[in-house]
């Protein structure tokens, strides 16, 4: 696998050779001072260009980065780009992954404002006078409002109820889909709690990659068990575990923020779900 200096040499050389590329930035975890480096991190490169559409079908440009085993286009339909930004994801034969974003140079100011996790690599026209020090501040978790917190609680209990018919029917495909919503809601509330403890100066990373290392030690085993459900019985056990963890995280967060946690809904929902599942009949439960 090529090292970062070799990859960055290609990034900059390819930009110098292209008159339409006017500026180059790097973003993502590789410019985040709070993230430990490893060989699996991808390279997030932003090319600011006069007209992004020029690079839609530039196979010769993509080939500069090496032999590819996978290529993926992310953005508007190719025939509808019309100057909009888009991304080419490249997985190269030596294991290096690169995301190449092509961004209109006319919108460079908004790019810098919206993304604080960004480093300038090249500026051909010297139009960028000052760039703040790269930080993950634009990716940090915000303090939830009372309404947002309470709605997220209701969402969690809604999906916790919604999964029961699927489990009773033995529909594991449906159960899996709903269970993802349950875990997502729980992780959002847990993320808020962690952020509250860190004074909202924390970024839990893409797909909550840093969430486990920030959970209190006595909750880690229970949290990991949420991801071990494989059949109807284990999904039900995990559901009850999720309810218990959500109660702990939600109550703690509500107390710290001065919000209301729906205790009555929690208790009645937990009892209802437990009784409905234990009967395991095919009746409609709501």
From TrEMBL:
> Do you know which InterPro entries this protein is assigned to?
Aminoglycoside_adenylylTfrase, NT_sf
User: What stretches pass through the bilayer?
Assistant: none
Q: Which domain of life is it from?
A: Bacteria
Among Pfam families, the record links this protein to: Adenyl_transf
Q: What is this protein called?
A: Aminoglycoside 6-adenylyltransferase
Q: Which organism is it from?
A: Citroniella saccharovorans
């Amino acid at each position: 696998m090529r090292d970062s200096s070799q990859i960055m040499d290609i990034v900059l050389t390819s930009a110098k050779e292209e008159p339409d590329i006017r500026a180059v930035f790097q973003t993502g975890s590789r410019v985040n001072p709070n993230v430990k480096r490893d060989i699996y991190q991808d390279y997030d490169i932003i090319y600011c260009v006069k007209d992004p559409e020029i690079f839609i079908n530039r196979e010769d440009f993509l080939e500069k980065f090496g032999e590819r085993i996978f290529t993926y286009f992310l953005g508007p339909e190719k025939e509808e780009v019309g100057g909009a930004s888009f991304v080419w994801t490249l997985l190269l034969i030596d294991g290096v992954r690169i995301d190449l974003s092509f961004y209109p140079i006319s919108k460079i100011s908004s790019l810098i404002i919206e993304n604080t996790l960004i480093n300038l690599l090249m500026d051909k026209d010297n139009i960028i006078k000052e760039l703040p020090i790269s930080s993950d501040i634009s990716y940090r978790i915000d303090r939830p409002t009372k309404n947002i917190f309470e709605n997220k609680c209701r969402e969690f209990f809604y999906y916790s109820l919604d999964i029961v018919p699927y489990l009773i029917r033995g529909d594991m495909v449906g159960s899996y889909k709903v269970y993802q919503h349950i875990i997502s809601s729980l992780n959002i509330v847990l993320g808020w709690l962690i952020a509250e403890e860190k004074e909202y100066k924390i970024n839990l990373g893409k797909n909550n990659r840093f969430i486990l290392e920030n959970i209190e030690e006595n909750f880690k085993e229970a949290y990991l068990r949420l991801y071990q459900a494989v059949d109807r019985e284990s999904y039900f056990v995990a559901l009850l575990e999720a309810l218990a963890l959500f109660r702990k995280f939600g109550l703690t967060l509500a107390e710290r923020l001065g919000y209301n946690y729906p205790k009555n809904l929690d208790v009645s929902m937990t009892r209802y779900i437990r009784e409905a599942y234990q009967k395991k009949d095919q009746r409609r439960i709501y």
